[in-house]
From TrEMBL:
Stretches assigned to coiled coil: none
Superkingdom of origin: Bacteria
Phylogenetic placement of the source organism: Bacteria, Pseudomonadati, Pseudomonadota, Alphaproteobacteria, Rhodobacterales
Domain Activator of Hsp90 ATPase homologue 1/2-like C-terminal span(s) in chain numbering: 13-139
SUPFAM superfamilies: Bet v1-like
Record's protein name: SRPBCC domain-containing protein
Family, per entry: Belongs to the AHA1 family.
Cleaved signal peptide residues: none
InterPro entries, sorted: ASHA1/2-like_C, START-like_dom_sf
Amino acid sequence: MSELRLERHYPISAETLFAWVSDPDKLLKWWGPEGLHVPEHDLDFTRKGPWYSVMVNEEGERFKVSGHVTHVDPPKSVGFTWGWHDDADARGAESHVILTVEDTETGARLILDHRDLSDADIAANHEKGWTSSLRKLDAQIQ
C-alpha cells in the first residue's frame, strides 16, 4: 500500500480553514482538479455519512468518486473513505483521506493524508489531482 501527504499554510484561523474543507458551499469552490467542474454531488463533510461527486472535464468525460465520512472533529479534522467508480458505476478499491487543520503562529496549516492507495502509480496520480485541487483552494484563500 502507498500513501501521500500534502501540506499547505494559510493566513486564516483554523475554524475558517476547517469550513473550507468541510462546508459544501466552500468545498465546491475548490473540489476537483483544475479544468473540471462538479455538476453532481453530495459533498458535505460537516457530518458522518455517505458522500459522492461527479467531476466532468471539458470533453464531457465524467469521473465519479464516492465514500463515507468516517469522522468529523471541528475544527481539527475530517476523514472519509474514497473510491473511484468505473464506467458501469461499479466502485473500485477503497482508500482513506484525512484532512487535518492545525493552528500555526501565522494562521493555520492543512495536512492532507491519503492512505491505503494500492500502489505508487496510483499514489502519484492522486498526488497530481490533489495538488491541482489545492491550487484552487490556495486561490480562494490567499
